[in-house]
Amino acid sequence: MFMKSNWGVKSTMNPSILNGTRNHLINQLVFFDEQYSLFYDQYVRNYGKEKQAIDEIVDRYKQTLESLLAKEDSALFQSLKAITLLGSSVKVLFEEDQFEESFTVVYPTDIDPDNNRISFLSPIGRQLLLAAPHDSVVLESPVGRQQVQVREISFTYMGGFSSP
């Protein structure tokens, strides 16, 4: 059994939930292995430097998933709070004004700006994907560059990628 708070899981995770999470992460790997070219054609507009950057992000992400999935359940559970994945909510502290905000990093089909659900392909999503608690990150957005510190990560998967 687990207890939910306003921010993630407080005690031990139910084995069926962890199995569902493990299956979800496996499905992410399968997606990037089998549907990456379709996905890429649908969501990436620039085939120059942007393609290289996206390829590097996806390769690092897949390597991270493979490493996480090799862990025992308890270690996997701890890792879900230690690194930002697709489906993670990330609480950040804006260093300039000490304002805290949370973002959930998702697939492009699951974005919801009103609820701070951002694509991992967006400038902020790219910078938060694979970040860890206490990381200092410069978020680049249309309003400028802002220094933030990652405060907390909670894996809160709420959706999935639909084929284009």
Question: Keywords for this structure?
Answer:
single chain; alpha+beta; GreA/GreB_C_sf; Transcription elongation factor GreA/GreB C-terminal domain-containing protein; disordered N terminus; 164 residues; 7 strands; disordered C terminus; RNA polymerase binding; Chitinase A, domain 3; five-stranded mixed beta sheet; globular; two-stranded antiparallel sheet; Tscrpt_elong_fac_GreA/B_C
Helix fraction, binned, reads 25-40%
Main beta-sheet annotation: 5 strands, mixed
- The number of distinct helices, counting runs of at least 4 residues, comes to 5
From the N-terminal CA to the C-terminal CA, the straight-line distance is: 37 Å
Domain Transcription elongation factor GreA/GreB C-terminal: 86-154
GO molecular function: DNA binding; RNA polymerase binding
Protein name: Transcription elongation factor GreA/GreB C-terminal domain-containing protein
Pfam family, one: GreA_GreB
Structure description:
It is a single chain. This protein is an alpha+beta fold. Helices cover 38% and strands 24% of the residues. The strands form two sheets. It has a five-stranded mixed β-sheet with strand order 5-4-3-7-6. A two-stranded antiparallel ribbon has the order 1-2. Helix 1 packs antiparallel against helix 3. The radius of gyration is 16 Å and the shape is globular. The N terminus and C terminus are likely disordered.
How are the SSEs placed, and which strands pair?
Layout: E1 4-5, E2 8-9, H1 15-34, H2 36-43, H3 49-69, H4 73-79, E3 88-94, E4 99-106, E5 117-119, H5 123-128, E6 136-141, E7 144-155
